[in-house]
Amino acid sequence: MEEQLTFELSKEFAGQLQKAVDDRDDAFIKQTLEGVNPADITETLEEFSSADSRYVLGLLDTETAAEIISNLDEDTLKRFLKVYSPREIATFIDVMDSDDAVDILNELSADIREEIIASLSNKEKIDHILDLLRYDEDVAGGLMAKELIKANVNWTIEQTIEEIRRQGENVTQIYAVYVVDNYNTLLGKVSLRKILLAKDGTLIKDIYDEEVISVQTNVDKEEVVSIMKKYDLDAVPVVNLRGKLMGRITIDDVVDVMTEQAEEERQLMSGISEDVEEDDSIWKLTRARIPWLVIGLIGSFFGAEVIRQFEGQIAVVPILASFIPLITATGGNVAIQSSSMVVQSLATKSVFQDSNFIRLMRVIAVAILNGLLLAVLAFTFSYFLRHDMQVSIVVAVALSCVVLLASLSGTITPIVLDKMGINPAAASGPFITTANDLLGLAVYFMVAYFLL
Amino acid sequence: MEEQLTFELSKEFAGQLQKAVDDRDDAFIKQTLEGVNPADITETLEEFSSADSRYVLGLLDTETAAEIISNLDEDTLKRFLKVYSPREIATFIDVMDSDDAVDILNELSADIREEIIASLSNKEKIDHILDLLRYDEDVAGGLMAKELIKANVNWTIEQTIEEIRRQGENVTQIYAVYVVDNYNTLLGKVSLRKILLAKDGTLIKDIYDEEVISVQTNVDKEEVVSIMKKYDLDAVPVVNLRGKLMGRITIDDVVDVMTEQAEEERQLMSGISEDVEEDDSIWKLTRARIPWLVIGLIGSFFGAEVIRQFEGQIAVVPILASFIPLITATGGNVAIQSSSMVVQSLATKSVFQDSNFIRLMRVIAVAILNGLLLAVLAFTFSYFLRHDMQVSIVVAVALSCVVLLASLSGTITPIVLDKMGINPAAASGPFITTANDLLGLAVYFMVAYFLL
């Protein structure tokens, strides 16, 4: 059973398929792909050339081909769309869920988009798509699909079941039937289980659940994610400002958003400025990495200028130079820890969050504790290694100042970025380490200047 | 509608509730919490003392109280459990889903756990719990719940509906009915929609879907997440080695695992060594942060010893000291970028991943390109600022070597960690920057030694 069902994707399978495509062995291709999950075919085709993929998709039925296309990653999708005419793309769009259709249309230029929409045969799909295209991709309206099952509050169970039969094919997973009044205002929902167990002739109004959590079309997608997570929802209806039912968002969309968020945060924290994958072109990878490296480089030249001011002192007390990495590394580590703590707590936003003042007080307390511990250690190590009391004192004092300053800057930066609408994870990246290097060097040499 | 349904949690509400608790105003508490979503009550009670929470929960029905308790975050849960006797905890466990019950039991000592299990009144629940306790928390068996609806392949639709009616209360969201043979072997599934639309007298064997994706009890939870994401599943049945249906995992569990993964990665990347929140105690926060800071400190003292070897040179050419931060900062930035790229591609594992050799070749190509660009910039800046040709050449040469070495170490470290079963994100944290500081300093001063 297990073996048969969870198809084991392999390079061997891809190789055989590639060979069959080269030989134009249609019978083999069709037979091999029979019953294979579209998600597995997608993964295989992502390794194929667009022309070969087109050949394979041409041998499958339109529904399966459309599903495969809607699963493709962004880069492959862009590549794919180039080998199809707008009219051909329209045949796939015709059988896709409206949200997937719009994701694809958004990858195309406005004129191709219009050509595709003009070629669509399904009138309802056109309406759905035109409605969805109005929303920004980052709000609930941009995440939702128009496909859902709704029942009028005055209907009987039989009428509702008839509607499920009629609409059923268009809605992949039903989850619940939404209940509306004559003006399409969302009133509540009723689960399939309740419908299944209800006696014939029961009215929807007598069994529906009024407590339905909904989101408005203009709500940020981050908030949609946190609402669906908090209330353990598998689907959430989307309403407009006047409470009319406009669409619904399903949990698989939320899972995708969470994956994107994780990737974005990883990139911000590591100073990669474009959405790149390890197998992108060498030029694209270089371009994604160079901006923050250059910013770091420029920052370091400012750092070099700071040190230059104290070169006389270094020439006299060259030990001072050897503790430069201690100061910059510790400052960077502390700042990144601090900003990550803030990013974490912003991600699990609660109305009960402490005020910024209390937060800062706590940060200062932790910083003083950490700073003192590190200062004692640094003093001990340094004195043990170099037997220079004065320099050891300079290192210990500078280090505890740097820990305090880095804690503050690491805490304040993400809060400020968040207020400005910028992803606060950017504060845990090279920006904070570069800024702290400068701060740390200035503090260190000032302390040395005054104490030596 | 909207206003009524999405309850706006506020500090004001929490304040009113707290006052009512202080006044022992039971009527007000009951009235206020009437119809409020348990998830909102959970969030409010997380701010209350355990004694006050216990008081509030005592006024609610057992089911609601149990749901609130199962939603609590780990820290609050531990605090809560202390104010209840094992017998009282058992009354909550009795009405909880088996997976939530086990999560709570896992927080308790073995003897309290046994006392609770002995106090349970629901025989089936005891069996479920004893079964689930056998699995590690990190595998499918530890994630699954025993509650699910299954139908024998020989049943009629009527028998299946009767089973749904009987089991319905225990299963929060049905998603699909799993189909088994007389020996409980998973054969497939049938959707509620199909059951709803089937004619009376239809046999399950004639309508069920054989293509069901399942996971085995011993599969890692990371793999469960990636399977459910890839195939857009809202629930996945869990089977044992012999294909018997053991339980099922629902998408909300996967969402929780993804949230945990994101938090764990954030902590590893920022060198925080415990699972802490911003509002934890100052001592706990300090303890979570100090280990990596100390490791960084020790690393920096090794760095200081490296520099010490060249102190004579620094005394003669003090400019050299001013470029130390340039070397360490760039090395750190490059290494973190490289390791993040690897972590990203490990997170979206594909069987088509390039071999490690091809990966390294590409990394080297990108590194050479980045290294050359940075070296040219560094030479230009440095010569423009200091007019010292020799030192500028040293900086440029050292920098391009450091970029290459940091790219390699940043790429290899996470691959090695992953092979060792350690979360590769650990390679994007302070470990890699500390190691690269040492490497960078050694390279820089060696280059200076040979070229000056």
In whole angstroms, the N-to-C terminal distance of chain A is 77 Å
* Side-by-side strand order of the widest sheet of chain A: 1-2-3
Quaternary state reads homodimer
Task: Identify the overall geometry of chain A.
Answer: elongated
Q: Could you tell me the number of beta strands of chain A?
A: 6
Q: Please give the count of helices of chain A.
A: 24
Provide the residue-averaged pLDDT of chain A: 91
Structural domains of chain A: how many: 3
Most extensive chain interface and residues per partner: A-B, 139 and 139 residues
Describe this structure in words.
Two copies of one chain form a homodimer. Chain A is mainly α. Chain A has three domains: 13-134, MgtE N-terminal domain-like (MgtE N-terminal fold); 150-258, CBS-domain, CATH 3.10.580.10; 282-451, Tetracycline Repressor, domain 2 (Orthogonal Bundle). Chain A is built from 24 helices and six strands. In chain A, the strands form two sheets. Chain A has a three-stranded mixed beta sheet. In chain A, strands 4-5-6 form a three-stranded mixed beta sheet. In chain A, α21 (324-347) runs parallel beside α23 (389-419). The first copy, chain A, is elongated. At the A-B interface, α13, α14, β4, α16 and α17 of A face α13, α14, β4, α16 and α17 of B.
